[in-house]
Amino acid sequence: MIGIDLLNSRELRATFLAVRNAAPEIQKWLRLSLKQISLPEWQGALRQSRATTAQSRVLVDTAKVKVSNQNIRLSAGDAAKRLSGGGKARDLAHGEEFGGQGGDRVKSYTSRRGGKSFQVRNRHTTRQFPARRRNGYVAFPAATIIIPRIASLAAQTVVRSLLDLVDGKAGQ
Known about the structure:
The structure is a single chain. The protein has 172 residues and is of the alpha+beta class. The chain has one domain (6-99, 136-167). Helix content is 49%, strand content 15%. The protein contains five helices and four strands, in the order H-H-H-E-E-H-E-E-H. It has helices spanning 10-21, 24-49, 53-60, 89-98, 139-167; strands at residues 64-67, 72-75, 106-113, 116-124. The strands form two sheets. A two-stranded antiparallel sheet has the order 1-2. Strand 3 (106-113) and strand 4 form a beta hairpin. Helix 1 packs across helix 5 and helix 2 (24-49) packs antiparallel against helix 5. The longest helix has 29 residues, at 139-167. It is elongated. 22% of the residues are buried. The mean pLDDT is 85.
């Protein structure tokens, strides 16, 4: 799990305390504003770190940002969306992010085509996912880059929105 500790930053702590102490309709408006600003940033960071089309379809296209009064949650690959091959993004996300096992296993087998049998030798049968990588391929590297940016955007958005509310410019 990657995150930012609010105890280390007075500015972020003050920002989230301001959100928590605001009126409910203001909180809702701030959450929507933060989500609209954060989602394109998160998707852009994922798009930059993806390497394959499968990673793009499974992780980037299903990216979401959930904003509450206490935190901002970034997710990728957590959708029940069916892909063109029939698999669900939720089922394929772990393999696309962290890789699979046995990518170098070689197998020989007998196949049939046109009624004739033939031997297939040295076929790599388990190369659907890249090699295992503990730190991930797409979402985790993107998150380490984008989390400080989103925290900064959150603080700026909350302060700017609250100042606009005080000046009477909100909603225009």
